Amino acid sequence: MTRPTKRRAAGALRCSIEEPSAKERLARRLNDIVQDRSLSQSEAAHVLAMPQPKVSAICNYKLRGISIQRLMRALAALGQHVEIVVSPSSPAARARIAVGTKLPHRAGAAAARAVDINAAFAGTRQ
């Protein structure tokens, strides 16, 4: 789920594609699980202990006002292990922020996805 964005660079407007944010990645995983379990929004609201309008907002990726912590709690309520790992970087591997998901075994091998979201910050540094 990439989204186009517009940034000003040296007086000119340029378009770029950003990777999904951490919130969007967590919401996607949450939505996948709710859908896989065939839960209605009302049922999901009960399981997640949040109002149905918040579940609707998450289902529609309207994530303003929904914290990463709330999304992590919701995933835990659905039996998911949510982990934040901080480790030192090395000269060979620059510091980065990544959000990943481990998916169930598919075709005999575990599939894992991670997104480097440094690109989102690249335009703000200098």
Describe, in plain words, how this protein is organized in 3D:
It is a single chain. This protein has 126 residues and is α+β, with helices and mostly antiparallel strands. It has a single domain, classed as lambda repressor-like DNA-binding domains (434 Repressor (Amino-terminal Domain), Orthogonal Bundle). It contains 5 helices and 4 strands. It has helices at residues 22-36, 41-48, 52-59, 68-77, 118-122, and strands at residues 3-9, 12-18, 98-102, 112-116. The strands form 2 sheets. Strands 1-2 form a two-stranded antiparallel ribbon. It has a two-stranded antiparallel sheet with strand order 3-4. Helix 1 (22-36) packs parallel to helix 4 and helix 2 (41-48) crosses helix 3 (52-59).
What string, H for helix and E for strand, traces the elements in order?
A: EEHHHHEEH
- Globally, the shape reads elongated
Give the helix proportion (percent range): 25-40%
Note the main sheet: 2 strands, antiparallel
Write down the CATH topology: 434 Repressor (Amino-terminal Domain)
CATH architecture: Orthogonal Bundle
Distance N terminus to C terminus?
27 Å
Poorly predicted residue ranges? 106-126
Pairing-aware structural class of the strands and helices? alpha+beta
Number of domains: 1
Brief summary of the model shown:
The protein is 37% helix and 19% strand. The chain is of the alpha+beta class.
Task: Write a concise keyword list for the protein shown above.
5 helices, disordered C terminus, two-stranded antiparallel sheet, 434 Repressor (Amino-terminal Domain), alpha+beta, about 130 residues, single chain
